[in-house]
Design brief:
This protein is an alpha/beta fold and 373 residues long. The chain folds into 2 domains: 2-253, TIM Barrel, CATH 3.20.20.70; 301-371, Orthogonal Bundle (Arc Repressor Mutant, subunit A), CATH 1.10.10. Helices cover 40% and strands 21% of the residues. It has 14 helices and 15 strands. A 9-stranded mixed β-sheet has the order 7-8-6-5-4-3-2-1-9, sandwiched between helices. Strands 10-11-12 form a 3-stranded antiparallel β-sheet, with no helix packed on it. Helix 1 runs parallel beside helix 2 (68-81) and helix 2 (68-81) packs parallel to helix 3. The longest helix has 17 residues, at 212-228.
Length: 373
């Protein structure tokens, strides 16, 4: 099995917290960019071999800015040149303001069967300082529009740890989402990345994100609320109804091969990682001329060990110890740290796996770093 990720580097506006690769001034080269991405798909079609494509993911950026015929052209290329599955999960990331009845009907007609909608917050002031392109009203209405058009596999994004976000307000956000009847929720803690507008707002004292205690409290409250409503907390930031966990993202954490198309997109084949340059002009100019439009590396045993730990600890199924110890034998320090975390009740060790507990998920990055080779 394998997946294809298509990075659409276009956005209407620059969100204050975002450090992903995109451009808001793309009209002059829009067609050229899409043509180049089509060419990359064709050039690299042999890299996945005979693997069946079980997931296609349009991310970005804002892929919902593409016209339905532009999205369809990618799907046609994939279906023609790759060994696809009729049951493949095909996800489109969408902003609430792009979700109209006409768009949803068109997306359904070309084969999109899953939407990932960036709600982020229901507070108008949050959406303002985030510089989001949608309003709180659109956040409320977009899911029902998509459902009326026939979408029955919908994920929404929320952010916690926001400035002045009380536990009561966070609970109200969760309640609103649960009332929408959606199948999947991704919730991320507000992260202040350098070189973003948010970093400048925080550095200048104009905004103060929620502290560590508030973030932890909101995360645990989210976990308890969603699991009590039947959601499977299958990855630290992700909750899905049983059988509706995201196939594409789950495969990232399982180490399944995937092909990344477009500027800044990453690819992985189990041995090697590759990533395209995060520069639209150079990606288009250098593509096919030489190999300067991407970089690649073969993972060392140390990198494979650390990556397996980092990704596995984030999931409900945990780290497969047999897979880990096939890379290298455990050291005394590893065994000692593992035992220490088990005594703190941050993880559970079975004969075959290591799995973080509810409280351990708050410490996932620290635990992983202490277990790294």
């Amino acid at each position: 099995m394998a997946g294809i990720y298509i990075h659409v580097p276009f956005c209407k506006k620059k969100c204050s917290y975002c450090d992903f690769h995109f451009s808001t001034t793309f009209a002059a080269y829009r067609e050229r960019m899409l043509d180049t991405m089509h060419s990359e798909l064709l050039l690299r079609k042999s890299e996945l071999g005979d693997n069946s494509i079980e997931s296609i993911y349009f991310g970005g950026g804002t892929p919902s800015l593409l016209l339905s015929n532009e999205l369809h052209s990618f799907l046609t290329l994939i279906h023609t040149n790759f060994n696809g599955l009729d049951t493949a999960e095909i996800t489109l990331e969408a902003n609430p303001d792009d979700i109209t009845e006409a768009n949803c009907i068109a997306w359904k007609s070309i084969g999109i069967n899953r939407l990932s909608i960036g709600l982020q917050s229901f507070r108008e002031n949050d959406l303002t300082w985030m510089n989001r392109s949608h309003s709180a009203l659109e956040a409320e209405q977009c899911v029902s529009i998509a459902q009326a058009a026939g979408f029955s596999n919908i994920s929404v994004d929320l952010i916690y740890g926001l400035p002045d976000l009380s536990l009561e307000e966070w609970d109200a956000h969760i309640a609103r989402v649960l009332g929408m009847g959606i199948q999947h929720i991704s919730a991320y803690c507000l992260t202040v990345e350098k070189k973003t507008a948010l970093y400048k707002l925080v550095s200048s004292g104009q905004l103060t994100p929620g502290g560590d205690d508030a973030q932890s409290e909101q995360f645990l409250h989210l976990t308890d609320r969603l699991t009590s409503h039947g959601f499977h907390h299958y990855e630290i930031s992700n909750f899905g109804l049983p059988g509706l966990e995201a196939i594409h993202n789950s495969n990232y954490w399982k180490g399944v091969n995937y092909l990344g198309i477009g500027p800044s997109a990453h690819s992985y084949n189990g041995i090697e990682r590759r990533w395209n340059m995060a520069n639209n002009a150079k990606y288009m100019a250098d593509f096919g001329q030489n190999e300067t439009w991407f970089e690649q590396e073969i993972l060392t045993s140390k990198e494979r060990w650390n990556e397996l730990l980092m990704t596995g600890l984030r999931t409900s199924w945990g780290v497969n110890l047999q897979d880990l110890f096939q890379i290298a034998a455990p050291t005394k320090d590893f065994e000692a740290n593992l035992k220490g975390f088990e005594e703190k009740k941050w993880l559970v060790k079975t004969d075959t796996h290591v799995i973080l507990t509810r409280e351990g998920r708050l410490m996932a990055d620290y635990i992983a770093s202490e277990l790294f080779m």
